[in-house]
Design goal:
The chain is α+β, with helices and mostly antiparallel strands. The chain is 32% helix and 16% strand. The protein has a five-stranded mixed β-sheet, sandwiched between helices. The structure holds FE2/S2 (inorganic) cluster (2 copies).
Amino acid sequence: MSKTTPITFTLNGGQQTVDVPPMKRLLDVLREDLHLTGTKEGCGEGECGACAVLFNGELVNSCLIPALQSNGARLCTIEGVSTDGRLHPIQQCFLEKGGAQCGICTPGMILATHQLLDKYPNPSMAQIQEGLGGNLCRCTGYMRIFESVQEAAALNPLAAK
Ligand code: FES
Ligand code: FES
């Protein structure tokens, strides 16, 4: 029987405590223990960004992080981006501009956009490409995704909370 350790963190604005085995990945704690399945597993090796979450405001790949490291942290997953059942403006733009292409990459793309617009409310195309550089699309292409980010920035430079 593996030993577990209780950890506490802020998750999508609420306090959360969970018992975790020492090396359990944050990705698995989110999906299996907390049933937040919006965070996806793609490569499992830190290469694709499908598992991206905001960790103290910074975009990280949760497949690379032992959940123990989250003790005391402030986490935001895709489930925490909308408010009161209303889509965040970034999500709305991804829907309307066709940037929401598949369920695997989209959550990470939206969280990467969230962080990008926090840092650069009016990003250049180069900044958009760099900001989303850790998030891979293996199928449809990036143009609609980049257009969605441009739309979100144009709609409201302060869209990202
Ligand atoms: S699943 Fe974590 S980076 Fe690909
Ligand atoms: S991997 Fe999601 S649209 Fe390409």
